[in-house]
Structure formats: C-alpha cells, structure tokens
Design goal:
By secondary structure, this protein is mainly α. Helix content is 69%, strand content 0%.
Length: 184
C-alpha cells in the first residue's frame, strides 16, 4: 500500500506562486514557505514508507528467526526515525512561519487557514490523507510484529523450561538446572 503524491519537480501538481511574491491582502504566508512545506511532507511520506518496508523486513526476520536481520532492520529504523524527527522540526518551523504563530500547529490548522490558497489546500490535504494512511499501516505492522516477538519469546521460554525439566541430572538427583530469564 504505497501512496505517492509528488511535487511539480517530481511529476505532481503545485500551485503557482504569485509573480511578485505578494499574496492576497492580509495574507502573510509566503508561497515559498508553502512550497517548502509540500517538499517536507513529500519527504516525510517517503520516510514513512521506508519505515513500513523496514517493519515488513522485521516481520520476515521474526518468522525466519533471523536475529541479525532483525537487529539490522531495527538499526535502520532508528536512523529513519531520526530523519523523520528532523523533518518534523522543519515542518513545525514552516507551519509557524506560514501562520505567524508560536503555538503548536497541526497540518489541519494550516489547511483551514485563509493564508493558504485553494490549490495549496488541496495538495496539503492529499499529503495529510496519505500520511495518515501510512501511519495507520505502520502502526498495524508494528503492533503485529510486537505480538509476534512476544509469542516467539514465550515459545522459547516454554521450550527451555521443557528441556530443563527433562535434563538427565533432574531425573537422577531430583534437582533442576537453574535457567536465567534474559527477557530476550
């Protein structure tokens, strides 16, 4: 489930900036800020799709019981999450410039603002929808992987306990070996 929305440079649509750099009366959002915001949203969407791919790779690693692949995917996810953090900071800065506000702003606030033109609102709305869909899919995969990891851990604990109960010394001496739960 990959949603693509592209800027003009990448084959998509973008509203035309005002030729003199001045928007409507009382309009304080420069077209350049909105255009940059669209670019940030495009990059965020791509990063979220990369996270989805990494979650699917983790799922394959869990099923295959490939700890190295799982560890590698988790490391790549950490890098991608850091990248998303940087994009979110840029997005927040741009939102504050567009709406001339110091408070925390959501994308819906920008879309509802009269400071943004109708074509820009349409494009921003498309990104908002695509990002929500990507986040929903990412959450679903992440929760599934977490359940699979817990199930796998529990299965190994059961196997170890079963093996410990059948240990030859346990049959002879009545003692059982001590197993340490490493919560792996």
């Amino acid at each position: 489930m990959k949603t693509q929305i592209m800027s003009q440079e990448h084959g998509g649509s973008r509203s035309a900036p005002a030729t003199d750099g001045i928007r409507g009366a009382g309009d304080t959002a420069p077209a350049a800020c909105v255009a940059e915001l669209v670019e940030v949203l495009r990059d965020e969407l791509a990063a979220h799709h990369k996270l989805i791919q990494l979650e699917m790779t983790k799922q394959e690693a869990i099923i295959a019981r490939n700890g190295e692949k799982l560890k590698q995917s988790a490391g790549e996810q950490a890098k991608e999450l850091h990248h998303i953090d940087l994009l979110e900071s840029r997005r927040d800065r741009l939102a504050r410039q567009i709406l001339a506000s110091d408070s925390d702003l959501r994308l819906a606030d920008i879309i509802a603002s009269p400071a943004v033109t109708a074509p820009e609102k349409t494009e921003l709305s498309r990104y908002e929808t695509a990002l929500k869909a990507a986040l929903g899919e990412l959450k679903r995969l992440s929760e599934l992987n977490a359940r699979m990891l817990i199930d796998s851990r529990d299965m190994f604990k059961t196997m170890l306990a079963s093996l410990a109960g059948r240990h030859p010394q346990a049959e002879r001496g009545g003692t059982r070996p001590l197993l340490v739960d490493a919560n792996c």
